[in-house]
Specification:
This is TetR family transcriptional regulator. The protein has 191 residues and is mainly α. It is built from ten helices and no strands. The protein folds into two domains: 49 residues, Homeodomain-like (Arc Repressor Mutant, subunit A, Orthogonal Bundle); 129 residues. Helix 5 packs antiparallel against helix 7 and helix 7 packs across helix 8. It is elongated.
Length: 191
């Protein structure tokens, strides 16, 4: 069963869906060939064989396009922490689930960090305006409230998500911090 991604949009016409898929395939090819930093809407339009206006109607900027490229991986991540096996999914104590969530997020950043960085930094508040961020925050806040009753779970959820900003992660990896060291640091934050 496919879960609707938090913040997902309405159904689309068949021709619009075909164009969307052409655009996404072309964008994925460009990112694979040249990296996420090279993602440009006019080049995507040319590679997809559609007009630039068609791309801009679907994707207002490269951040929105990057989010669309990340959609399937985000769905799998959500399914894992909502209904997957413990400790990431239900059935483990709250602190174990928080740790598993943070570690899985780091793994995702390792896999797609530069593309996530494009998605999160296209506009000043892009990271916080996605349904995915709101779901991640809500999930962590609920687990934190369970694990540490009486704490400000909403603030702590933001505090735990802050070091998982893609730009922060990419910066750390470029400065020789290993994935294991980043995960260990997050474990230390959990105390």
């Amino acid at each position: 069963m496919r879960l609707p991604i938090a913040g997902g949009g309405p159904a689309e016409r068949a021709d619009a869906a075909r164009n969307r898929q052409k655009i996404l395939r072309a964008a994925a090819r460009l990112v694979a060939a040249r990296g996420a930093d090279a993602l440009a809407l006019d080049e995507v339009a040319a590679a997809a064989g559609v007009g630039v206006g068609t791309v801009y109607r679907r994707f207002a900027d490269r951040g929105v396009l990057a989010q669309a490229l990340l959609d399937e991986r985000e769905r799998r991540f959500q399914e894992a922490f909502i209904s997957g096996p413990p400790p990431l999914g239900p059935g483990a104590p709250a602190l174990e689930r928080i740790r598993a969530f943070l570690h899985a997020f780091v793994d995702r950043l390792e896999e797609q960090g530069t593309l996530l960085m494009v998605a999160e930094t296209a506009t000043p508040k892009a990271r916080f305006e996605t349904g995915a961020y709101r779901l991640h925050h809500s999930h962590l806040a609920g687990l934190l409230a369970e694990a540490r009753p009486g704490t400000d779970a909403h603030f702590l959820a933001d505090a735990l998500l802050a070091p998982l900003a893609a730009a922060q992660f990419v910066h750390q990896r470029e400065n020789d911090l290993s994935v294991e060291r980043i995960k260990a640091g997050l474990d230390q934050l959990l105390g």
